[in-house]
Design brief:
By secondary structure, the protein is α+β, with helices and mostly antiparallel strands. The protein has helices at about 20, 40-50, 100-105, 120, 135, and strands at about 5, 10-15, 25-30, 60-65, 75, 110-115.
Length: about 140
Amino acid sequence: MDNGSLNNQRGVVMTSDGSIKDKGGRLLIDNKKCQGCMTCMLACSLVHEGKEDLSTSRIQVLQSSFETYPNDIQTRPVASCDLCLDTPYWKEQGGVDGKQACVEACPLGAVRLSTEMPANLENGEDEVNFRGEGWKKIGYPID
């Protein structure tokens, strides 16, 4: 584990040196639901930097050409996420009580804000699951 984050190929609790936890929330990502479109990365860089630049995003989505689903997507925190508290190029209020650009932009709902650590992660499991029956109907596993 690097930078104090819980991170693996299937699910992530994003903290970077405790910065998200200190703000009262954390970003959770379901890597089995994420399709690697990088919309969250573009939204993050746009609201913080004023331009779409994948290298300045506070969330990184890595897609491997050598892996197959569900191991082809990895997410990594690379900088201190402020939950969009300091977003000079976005009119929305961020933080725990506001909106986060990556959550709002994700077309599949693979990124969510949580104010508490999910019980399964506290108990040693390593993934979050935002997949429901609709996900199963289009041919993807929900487990």
